[in-house]
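tool=predict chain=A
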Amino acid sequence: MFIVSLFIVQCSLNLTITLPDTTIHAMPLIVDAHQDLAWNAITFKRDYSQSALAIRESEKGTDAPIKNGLCTIGLPELLQGEVAIVFGTLFASPMRRKMGEWDGIAYADSDQAHKLYSQQLDYYNRLTDEHPQFALIHNKNDLEKVLATWSNPPEGSKPSGEFNAKRKVGIVRLIEGADCIREPQEAEWWMEHGVRIIGLAWTGTKYSGGTGEPAPLTPEGRRLLRVMSDLGLILDLSHSSDQSFFESLDHFEGTVITSHANPRALWLDEVKAPERALSDDMIRQLAERDGVMGIVPYNRFLKATWKVSDGKTLSVNHIAAMIDHVCQITGSADHVGMGSDLDGGFGAESIPAEMDTVADLKKVEEALKAKGYNDGDTEKIMSGNWLRILRKGLPA
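tool=predict ok
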């Protein structure tokens, strides 16, 4: 779920990445590290087993497109786009940041947050029970089972309808904003119920400063990081304030990511830097920990001056420029991927011109290749880097 902060694309691109042309998987799969499926399903009654276009049709005449944009995600588009894995969030906003009277998922305290996030756990359980082409990923074995459904058909044969019907979209559950964890040791309960990634912040929480509410880690936040490290949970630093970002890297010993955060690069207001995007120093330190950051294709996160009235005036080249910036800063293609946040407060009208649904994430790969990235580079960026994180951070 995004909070608006603005930055612009770095214009000077002087590094071409050339790495060994190795393949990570038999197909050019995509891993998307951030989708607010449960929040949308509960708030707007979106049925993600349907196509995005069918959901749009069902929402005509409602306020859903006004509040959250034109739907971009549906099972058919995920399959068409070869989006094999998504990180599905558990998210709610605190009452002080409630998005309007229509926002029925907002909490006043940790007990209420626990209840709301638990309902979203139940949503993912129902989704996968009722629609078996969605599958929950709890461990490395689950991950490999999902990936196996995407294996190429025998050489010389064409994918059949039956073959395509066997493909699954795996969901790794991610807590966005940890107020639902009523005390640090309760992270173990969430892990037992399927959560594998925790982000302490959205805006500020009882554990950490966050977007729009800069503050350090709290003593409880430091305790939570110790518990998470002991449990082997993955830490998502998206939405962390600058101070809590660096403190978290110092205090947390496990696997770290930023599921959805573009590079800060350049900023129009030199007095106040945005805490929603990552500075070059943050990107370097994340890479030093072998972390990965997911790039968001939201136009306002791609160009600071873009506004909805501008329409679909940006291109996938703006996304490629953000990815290229990370590669230049870190010196490799190993620390960046996609974290689309699609349907996370914006829709099809607010993404680049070539894109209409999640199926079009594959066009980012085409833009990268036009920049000179080889197959090995692009496969890492589109899926391999996130698969490395999951194979390292998930339990056996």
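The CA atoms of residues 154 and 163 lie 11 Å apart. Confidence is low (pLDDT under 50) at residues 3-26.
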